[in-house]
Specification:
The complex is a heterodimer of chains A (565) and B (127).
Chain A (H helix, E strand, L loop, with lengths): L7 H7 L89 E5 L6 H11 L7 E6 L2 E6 L2 H8 L18 E3 L11 H13 L1 E2 L4 E3 L7 H4 L10 H14 L5 E3 L14 H4 L5 E3 L21 E3 L31 H9 L10 E10 L13 H4 L11 H6 L2 E2 L1 H10 L3 E3 L5 E7 L3 E12 L8 E10 L9 E11 L2 H6 L18 H14 L3 H10 L4 H13 L11
Parallel strand pairs in A: 6-7, 7-8, 8-9, 10-16
Antiparallel strand pairs in A: 1-3, 1-4, 2-3, 5-6, 10-11, 12-14, 13-14, 14-15, 15-16
Chain B lengths: L6 H25 L13 E4 L2 E4 H11 L3 E12 L2 H4 L4 E12 L5 E10 H8 L2
Antiparallel strand pairs in B: 1-2, 3-4, 4-5
The chains are: A alpha+beta (565), B alpha+beta (127).
Chain lengths: 565, 127
């Protein structure tokens, strides 16, 4: 194993009595008292590691199959119509809580080694198996806990028995201590039981999906004064424990909107929730893509990261426009919503920030026998680049816009548009350390409020970014294909999204609204919560809401939970 | 070090390569389906309507599972991918569109995009 011997000299100096910093007393020159171990940052890398960071260390993100709006909601159920219940679920409380322990010991080490090397070397010569708890590095020392005195004793005997690659002996020091902070939960057993019930309600067995979006504000917890704050180690660990014990076959986990800034505890998911395929971390406080390295080993199909500081699209914060409306995240580090907000805004100049200096853009429309001036694609036909039709190399060259100034100038000349943000899909094609290739597709109409046929676009984008830096991606190649929308696409376009339960406060309803709600609930069979959402999304137009409901129901897009009264 | 070609030359070359590639690709797809995986790198990924298929074995299985096809490519566009994003490895973005009829199905529109790297270009040059 690798041995980082860089810090070695420092610790050697520490061996001289008297020069040891921060004397703490107790046995041995480097013993420390338990209370110095408050939530120390767990890191098994040295501070200035130059380790390579891959852009996406956790497997390829893919879009779930299907076009339904429900499919795109991370962590929530897909096509409905399946029988309620389904496999797994929260089992009844297992007997007993924690395991019995006879005491906690902490073992400080005098040097900073590669964690894996150190723990393996110790296990090789230690007479008993041990499980290191809360391994962490503080200054030059490595610390961990073990849970009983005989193990601690056995480890102590390993002191001076291992020689590191520099020829020095590894020292093992043992001290009694209180249990490490990681296992001291500030959630009492009865709180944990409530939390479990709360999580059970948010669990969809048919999808093996758990929705913990903004769990802090869940009425069940708030009413009991239970604080489940997922950016706190103890809360997150409690949640993971409950998942591990009750629903370890979980495949979708939604942790959005929980102010999460570190993923240390989530690393446990790799072993405890091995079937996890979808993880939604959108709308949190992740600042660096290095955090994502902690998820190494998770074979995710989808990872949602939008609305985290690490995804900031624009270099200039002032030009960032937050898009309103429904939260439909794109699973990449490129803010597609913002791009189209600007694209639709009437001034596309700010898109300059989205493109690399040397960017290229071209546009293609399908071959059409129609008179171009009559066709709705007329505005785009004249700039369409199609190598099947254009054989002259100069013309081919001219139709390719090159450099970002030319690209954006060209885009600014294209007609004003309104994209249906709710309908776009994003597919990641491939990625490397420096390249991310994806395709966005959706529908848009020209102009504002004009009755114009709908157009469908497919934008294939190559973006450049350095995965080692927390920099935004910029577009280097942009290929835009535009055609008429099909009747099916038109039917589904610009429709209010399907109702979903939310934890936002319920506004008080007027009497007519109450009546409408009761009637709608009766007719549709949906519970009041879902009926209300459907009506609200359709501006309390009963007939429109009913139409939408019927449509979605026929398409099998309403999950069973909507009908549970 | 290789000489950097100017952008115009890149564009000209990429047009020629992409035309040749597309002819070979869809010919294989329609008539010599088993040869198709030879056009993919070992670690290539294909994404079809949101579903990813990676690696030679999975790709072979995937192509075998598709009914026989008749592709008509109506639109073709390509761009050289900026070298900074590819760390100097010559890469082309190729985008096609047209219609396809799979046996047993009605004719549909299709759109497809490819990222070609220099290895494939050499392959085509000497075929």
């Amino acid at each position: 194993g690798g041995h980082k011997g860089r810090s070695y000299d420092r610790s050697r100096r520490d061996r001289q009595p008297g020069s040891h910093s921060g004397g703490f007393g107790g046995p041995g020159p480097r013993s420390r008292l338990a209370d110095m171990d408050e939530d120390v940052a767990m890191s098994d890398n040295s501070q200035d590691s130059s380790a390579q960071h891959r852009f996406n260390p956790y497997g390829r993100p893919i879009r779930k199959g299907g076009d339904g709006r429900f499919d795109r909601r991370p962590g929530k159920g897909g096509g409905g119509g399946r029988g309620g219940g389904g496999g797994g679920g929260f089992r009844g409380g297992r007997g007993g809580g924690g395991r019995s322990r006879s005491g906690w010991f902490k073992i400080p080490h005098g040097k900073k080694y590669d964690k894996q090397w150190l723990l393996t070397a110790l296990q090789n010569i230690c007479s008993v198996p041990y499980r290191p708890v809360q391994f962490h590095v503080d200054h030059n020392r490595a610390h961990f806990y073990v849970d009983d005195s005989s193990t601690a004793h056995a480890l102590h005997k390993c002191s001076h028995k291992i020689t590191d690659t520099d020829g020095y002996k590894v020292e093992v020091h043992v001290n009694p201590s209180a249990p490490p902070s990681s296992l001291v939960s500030d959630l009492k057993p009865e709180h944990l039981e409530h939390l479990k019930q709360c999580m059970a309600k948010r669990f969809d067995g048919s999808q093996q999906a758990l929705d913990l979006n903004n769990i802090r504000t869940d009425p069940d917890l708030v009413s009991q004064n239970i604080e489940v704050i997922l950016n706190r180690k103890t809360s997150m660990e409690a949640v993971i424990k409950i998942i591990e014990e009750n629903i370890p076959e979980l495949t979708c986990l939604n942790l959005s909107n929980n102010r999460i800034h570190k993923l240390d505890e989530l690393a446990e998911l790799v072993t405890k929730v091995p079937n996890l395929k979808t993880l939604n971390l959108s709308h949190n406080e992740l600042k660096s893509d290095r955090e994502l390295d902690k998820l190494k080993g998770l074979k995710l199909g989808e990872l949602w990261l939008n609305r985290n500081p690490l995804c900031d699209f624009f270099k200039d914060q002032a030009s960032y426009i937050r898009s309103d409306g429904n939260d439909l995240p794109a699973p990449i580090g490129f803010d597609v919503e913002t791009y189209y907000s600007i694209y639709d805004s009437g001034d596309r100049q700010p898109l300059l920030d989205a493109y690399h200096d040397g960017a290229s853009l071209s546009l293609t429309t399908p071959y059409s026998t129609q008179n171009p001036s009559r066709s709705s694609l007329g505005e785009y036909h004249k700039d369409s680049r199609n190598l099947r039709r254009h054989k002259d190399s100069t013309l081919r060259y001219r139709l390719l816009k090159h450099t970002r100034l030319n690209v954006v100038a060209f885009l600014n000349e294209l007609p004003k548009t309104q994209h249906d943000i709710a309908s776009f899909t994003v597919d990641v094609n491939t990625y490397t350390n420096t390249l991310l290739s994806f395709t966005v597709s959706g529908v848009f109409k020209e102009g504002e409020g004009k009755v114009n046929p709908l157009l469908k676009y497919l934008k294939t984008v190559q973006t450049y970014g350095l995965s080692t830096l927390c920099h935004s991606l910029c577009i280097v190649n942009d290929q835009l294909f535009i055609r008429m929308a099909t009747t099916e696409e038109i039917r589904r376009a610009f429709v209010a999204p399907a109702p979903t339960p939310s934890s936002s406060p319920v506004p008080t309803l007027t009497a007519p609204q109450q009546e409408m709600l009761t009637a709608f609930s009766q007719k549709s069979g949906m519970n009041l919560e879902w009926s209300q959402k459907c009506l609200q999304d359709n501006e309390w137009d009963f007939n429109r809401a009913a139409q939408i409901f019927t449509q979605l129901k026929t398409d099998g897009k309403i999950p069973d939970v909507a009908f549970i009264k | 070090m290789a000489t950097t070609l100017d952008f115009r030359t890149h564009v000209d070359q990429s047009c020629r390569y992409s035309e040749e590639f597309v002819n070979i690709y869809y010919d294989c797809m329609d008539k010599k389906r088993r040869n198709l995986t030879r056009l993919y790198l070992d670690k290539a990924t294909l994404v079809w309507n949101g579903n990813a298929v990676s690696g030679q074995d999975a790709l072979a299985e995937f192509f075998e599972s598709l009914p026989s096809s008749e592709f008509q490519v109506h639109t073709l566009d390509c761009q050289p991918v900026h070298e900074q994003a590819t760390q100097g490895q010559t890469t082309l973005l190729v985008v096609t569109g047209g219609t396809v009829k799979f046996e047993g199905n009605k004719q549909r529109f299709f759109n497809q995009n490819f990222l070609l790297t220099a290895q494939l270009l050499i392959f085509f040059k000497w075929k």
